[in-house]
């Protein structure tokens, strides 16, 4: 390729070897949102030869303030495709491949991940991050993981066997509220907001409260009966859903949740001995008060609506949402399952419904009402996303990738961007070694070709594991969180892998449960293949050595996963936590600041920045700029 002016400067600052390598490199970027747009621009301008990017989402108005590759005319279009189009113009020498897809789709197989030199995560949720981490470990490809929340940012280079993986430090479970707090005894406005969003909205328009991560249904001896009652209430509400579109539907819903359910709660006298009793609301009297309240009231999002205004917005948004469902139903082919809606803070209809319902419930339980604006922050768990944090984090990702590509992993750093509370705005830590207890990377891993339609679980258990890999009596075979086989669970042995819903690129984990000299967990990456009928229905390509697991440390007291209501400082529940909670890191969770959730927008108002300067040091040897190396 000819050397352009662009190449000349890149060569000067990166050094010839690295620049040549970058021009040839094929890299993958997952997520084209806040960090992703910045990262793509950086990769393109640095001159990475071939960039593949995956994002499942479409562009929303609220993305435009920081996701600068997108413009007004792109709203509702695929982020991946528009990002490719916009960033492609910055450097015509770079090849960009875009996929409007979920990275968890089976077509993005381990073999596909193996085709990349480096993978970059620019995601916003724990689940997808974990998936990419697992795939990169299986493919043995370096991963640059990143996240921001408000003014906080973090970059973590990950290399199989050489550094900690994303899951080496436990991540906090998403915070949730006990079902009884939400459904029977709310005491803060956030409880009413979670009720409106995760219960009422879901039962009427969505799938079900059962799927809501915010509501914890853990039973204990004290709440068993009430959980049973609440399940009956939810079933009754679902029945009312059948009347959607009818004249009496709004009254039915209103009277069910703001009158009948409250009357049932009132009948449980013990519940109110130490609590103020709720008051049921009256449809007819609120109807009278709401006469003359126009639908424009929903636009006053900073104001605290009166009870009548909340009532009016409740009815109006219920009608808007019902008609949406009815229209979708009419448009779709018969026999399809009924359409469902999902809550989205940027969808005015769902937001109005949740705001008005939450406030009406606050009225029932004598709590302050909140403005729609405030409820949006709480329901959407929003911390303002800061464009500059994303930009800095994305550039740190590229700087770390340079070190990985030079083969200098020992120089790569875990970098933290924090506005205050630390001496510097940027701090860097040497990468820690893998955690020997990590359930994801401290495992033996191998690929097995399997004729999925022909091989039974018994073939794997007896043939592969006992005969070839010398497993004893005590072990289990697991797929995700379900046990397919253990000595007491042999019902699946005669089933084929297809019958067990295992597909190409499924993972099975074998846990050795021997009393002595148990081996580390073994992860089998199942690759579907039609094997010769006369041969065994599975084939292990390489011999694998499965080391003995280190002796277990005495159990430490649990620090997370508490099943009962936990809120952060703002009384907001975090949708998906991402914080490291073990002691391997130098800084405490609070100091690092990212621990509630690396992802932006998670329920905490970010602290103000201080006056510290960014520390950048010139690395004269390599021509590159490195951070605090
Ligand atoms: N499983 C996945 N596969 C592909 N892309 C994903 C997956 N999960 C999340 N993403 C993408 O990662 C990106 C994360 O970007 P970001 O954190 O800026 O979120 P956003 O949705 O753009 O912004 P906001 O949530 O603040 O409106 C999003 O564009 C999202 O679509
Ligand atoms: Zn790990």
Mind sketching the topology for me?
Elements lengths: L4 H10 L1 H9 L1 E5 L3 H13 L3 E6 L23 H10 L6 E6 L9 H4 L4 E4 L4 H14 L3 E7 L2 E7 L18 E2 H5 L5 H17 L9 E2 L7 H18 L7 H19 L15 H7 L17 H25 L16 H17 L7 H8 L7 H19 L7 E5 L8 E5 L13 E7 L6 H12 L6 E5 L2 E4 L20 E7 L9 E7 L9 E3 L48 H4 L24 E2 L6 E2 L3
Parallel strand pairs: 1-2, 1-4, 2-3, 4-5, 7-8, 11-15
Antiparallel strand pairs: 5-6, 6-9, 9-10, 11-16, 12-13, 12-14, 14-15, 17-18
Zinc ion binds next to loops.
In short:
The protein has 629 residues and is α/β, with parallel strands linked by helices. It has helices spanning 5-14, 16-24, 34-46, 79-88, 110-113, 126-139, 179-183, 189-205, 224-241, 249-267, 283-289, 307-331, 348-364, 372-379, 387-405, 457-468, 589-592; strands at residues 26-30, 50-55, 95-100, 118-121, 143-149, 152-158, 177-178, 215-216, 413-417, 426-430, 444-450, 475-479, 482-485, 506-512, 522-528, 538-540, 617-618, 625-626. The chain folds into three domains: 5-172 and 385-435 and 611-626, NAD(P)-binding Rossmann-like Domain (Rossmann fold, 3-Layer(aba) Sandwich), CATH 3.40.50.720; 187-366, Ubiquitin activating enzymes (Uba3). Chain: B, domain 2 (Arc Repressor Mutant, subunit A), CATH 1.10.10.520; 444-540, Roll (Structural Genomics Hypothetical 15.5 Kd Protein In mrcA-pckA Intergenic Region, Chain A), CATH 3.10.290.
Number of domains: 3
- Strand composition percent: 5-15%
Shape verdict: globular
Task: Spell out the CATH superfamily of the largest domain.
Answer: NAD(P)-binding Rossmann-like Domain
Which CATH architecture of the largest domain would you pick?
3-Layer(aba) Sandwich
Q: What top-tier CATH class of the largest domain fits best? A: Alpha Beta
* Estimated helix fraction: 25-40%
Using only C-alpha atoms, the radius of gyration works out to 27 Å
Class from secondary-structure proportions: alpha/beta
Mean pLDDT figure:
83
Low-confidence blocks of residues = 555-629
| Assembly form of the protein | single chain
Bound molecules: adenosine-5'-triphosphate, zinc ion
Q: What is the spatial order of strands in the main beta sheet?
A: 3-2-1-4-5-6-9-10
Euclidean distance between termini CA atoms: 33 Å
Sheet having the most strands: 8 strands, mixed
Number of strands: 18
